[in-house]
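@channel sequence for tomorrow's demo:
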Amino acid sequence: MSFGTYSDQFLCAAIVGALVGVGIATQASVSWAWDDGSVSQIAASWGIAPILAGCFSALLFATLKFSILERKDSFTKGLRAIPFYLAFTAAILALFITVETPGAASLEDLGAGVATGIILGVFFGVLLIAYVFFLPYFHRRLVKQDPRIRSWHIPLGPLLWRDNPPLYFPGRAEDGIVKDYYASAHSDTSADSPPLKATDEPKSDSPPSTLENGEAIVVHKRYTVKPEPEERFLAPYKHLPITNPRRLMSYVTFFLLQGVTRDCVTYSSEQLKTTHEKAARYDNKVEHLFTYAQVASAMLMSIAHGSNDVANAVGPWVASYNTYQAGEVDSKTNTPIWILVVAGFLLGAGFWFYGYHIIRSLGNKITQMSPTRGFSVELGAAASLRIARSSRSYANTASRLLSSSHRDSVFRFRRHSA
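structure tokens (generated this afternoon):
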């Protein structure tokens, strides 16, 4: 798995392979038949579960594409729909938190009535919040294009409908209204390179656009490349003696922050550049609306990922520990709290120091991402993980995200003229 991390490969299934290998080496009985929890069912889930995640994500993005993104005046359609997407995502998040809380009842124990009550209660509650607080915020920022508005002004709610609302800590005008979510991240792109050409009508009015021979041209900015941690933390103090406190502090800073300050966006592949240029580009203001829904979908994915992948890693550890303590092998055993705490810390540390490898792969090596794509991928993968856990199937988070990204990309390519 360490090799896979450094080579940007997904090798979570190595845990299962290691268990089978140890079982064969120790001449233990390995369940190959099609029984509950057998190796055959686990292997089958590696193909079935990613397909399920991909279908969920494709279906979700299809609703976005055909009801909002591909429609005329997509921003107006998105502004009307975003409260329902926020409410829907929040309702699923509430259900996740309810059933994933340690010691809480399972989804089967809750029953259909309680589960439905939780979903509908949170749905309509968040829907009301979205109309009271989020819609005035979106109108002030994206329709009125007030550059002073920031996310911390959402609690002002109805006051934002006023011509001159009482803003606290207003933002700077030079920061802009929305970012260009389709800025070129190709590292070899020069400032003088020709703009991207779209054969259909431009769906984004945020970047500047012109007409050339009757063909629409949408100009997207280039992504600003940030210095790598070696250049940012180590290079300024390289001339100092190795014993200098400032240089020693630079090594400490580099060790602690190198995993979260690396550039995970830019790339140099010409093939990947061509793939990204084929992806349809939509209105940046619509994409901005879904950055808020993506916060909830990211929370969903984090809960699903943590509860699933910690269990995958903790299972063999707990089995080994309890076998050592009891001197015999038990089919069922309780998990010590201290093991869960240590495993959770190590999972977080792995994300902090080495998570950028996976972010690079899922972020842009498969297909171009944007808030609407990320929202669909995260929600689809999280939903499939919940189903897999309910059916007691082996679940691989990375493979579900990977499949969700592939299925999502199917709906995103535009047709090019020869």
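heads up for whoever presents: Residues 284-326 form the longest helix (43 residues).
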